Amino acid sequence: ADLAGAEGGLSSTCTVIVDVDEVNDHAPEFSQQQYGPFKLPEDTGIGHVITSFSASDADFNTSDAWLITYALESGNEGQRFGIVQGGQSNIGKLVLRKPLDFDAVSEYGLVVSARNMEDLEEGDYGPSSTTTLSVRLQNVNERPEFPRAAYEVNVSREVQPGTVLMTLQARDPDSVATPVRYRLGNESGSWLSVGATSGEVTVQGRPPAARSYRLQVWAEDGDDPSLFATTYLVVHVAELREPPLLVYSGNYLCTPRREEQAISVTVFHGTRLATLSIDGHPMERRKWKLDQRNDTLAFLSIGLSWVDPGLHQVTIVLREEGDATVILRDTHPVNICTCSSHGKCRIELEPIQGKPTILSTVSTIVGTLAVIGFSLILVLVHLSVTRKQRKKSKRDVSVEAAPLHPSA
Q1: How much is the pTM?
Q2: Strands 252-255 and 326-339
Q3: At 111, is the secondary structure helix, strand, or coil?
């Protein structure tokens, strides 16, 4: 009998295995609310590990409730920092992702959060689950900077000594800037110089025979000459030449348009590979056609079938091929007249001031003849009346002279 479990009775034993499931009931905690400041030179290389940190978790070791992931919540302006973790470890490393600039931002306060791989069963993450990593940058003397990799300038071969071609300006990126000193490479010879502090490139003598020069310019830190930047100055030397001139064969065209009619335009003292074009408002340019035959000759004609007669001003511009710069802008007066049957200008003559017209001449002649005719009539009438009076007088005289006869 088992004796109701009393001593001396029958008994047996067994092993009971109880599996307890881990739940995430503990939030990770940092031991400090702030770490640092960690001093970092501004020229530190990308990938540098700034510091390591970790939070603790009371949950079962290596479980998802225990594993922690870290994230930068704020303070990471420009995304310059990052956090890396490895494997089954709760250790995080703060690394540099992008270059630093002490003059832009000198100190960072990086807020780091700690979260479990598994959702928190109860409650929420508290203030102890975040911390701040303070990073303070150290200023480093930086090399000067040129804003451009190369500069170009044009100069005449007749340029006078003392002429300033251009002013170079290098920038010291440090907040407390030191003076920048300039110098030219040895290939500049003796015909150019650069102001050590002004950066002015000045002509010292006559340019050599070459058409172009490529000179290296140095800008050195005033406190540390080992910190420098370089750029290139390309100088194009042009021969002195007379300004271009456009010569026209005439200034008359007739309308409606005749294909054979054109005014020749010749370029004198022009540049090689010159291009001519009509300038002005698009509606005005449509009136004209410019047919360029070569670098020195073009023909100007009417571009529409009809252009109103009158005086027109046509503007022609001259450029070097491949260059938008206008070398010459010339305005030429063009008289548009109506075409005759022979394709020539039919020009109506206007009365000359002070000269008689045909109508006035005819009127004068007719008026003169009328006066003469009227005068002749008066003379004839006068002669007729006079003749009659003379005849009457003769009759009266004859009667008075006749002898008296006695009556019978």
Answers
A1: 0.46
A2: parallel
A3: strand
